[in-house]
Design brief:
Layout: H1 3-17, H2 28-42, H3 52-71, H4 78-91, H5 111-124, H6 127-138, H7 144-158
Length: 160
Amino acid sequence: MSQQEVIDTIEQVARRLAPKFTFAYFGVEDIEQEAFMMGMEALERYDESKPLENFMYVHIKNRLKNFKRDNYYRQDEGTAQQIQARKRNLLEPANIESFYFADDKDAIMDQASVNEIKSLIDQKLPVSMRGDYLRLCAGFPISNQRRSEIVTTIKEILEL
């Protein structure tokens, strides 16, 4: 194949795949440019005994999937930032002091008691409930049914 035929093939594959991989602030033209560069970089791994278009399609498609995965969430704006915060909250210990109050005075239990309660919940809460429990503690919405299941399990753990 001539150099121009190779470039035309890569451009054709890039144009075909680009609309499927647009996201956030990356438009079709941006994805086409990225796909073209990915195709050019892949030429050194191309086996000339196989069709170029098939090789480029598979290679560029896989690289665009990785590109979208790696760049999808923007750290600095709107909902993407909220999604990132939710992901971080799933991995960080929850601050549950505000859930526990003393009998009549409605004051927060002393820190030692709260730490004991947290430790007990962390040890005995089933893994299947952990994600929703952390979402609940972080203030994110979960279904009422799941909320009541978690509360019931925590009451059983604390023997209330």
